[in-house]
């Protein structure tokens, strides 16, 4: 939730592309705000976190929800997204490691029509573009998009801008380059519902 990419997405995408962003931590995750309740369970008990946040979005009738996961979060999207396919538009995976996802879980994506995009850094620590193309070939509609010069954590403005422009383009359905400056109103960060 407090990673630089998610934090910048939550500030920039609403202001520059009219895309709302809701970020959260799964159980047992530590950040500058403290540690979430619960204990990390390797992607099993985190299904409750996945369901809770999607229920939160649906309960507020937020339009056009997309699932966006980064690293471990991508595994939750891959494992649990298909069962709730009628409740979200599509999914974007940032730096998916594919450590905890079973091939049968990936194959479930072939039973739904939601678009799936995997944004893969060239120098990722866990899954690089060639490997990603091979692993995601099991999902017919998966689009693997490599990012030259980027790493797993998307460090640096060049990497952040590239990934946020891609997210905006995917969600808006058209090529989008976010402005590099903003002069509109600024809201305070909302930390509680």
UniProtKB/TrEMBL annotation:
SUPFAM superfamilies, per the entry: alpha/beta-Hydrolases
Gene3D superfamilies named among the record's database cross-references: alpha/beta hydrolase (3.40.50.1820)
InterPro entries: AB_hydrolase_fold
Protein's name in the database: Alpha/beta hydrolase
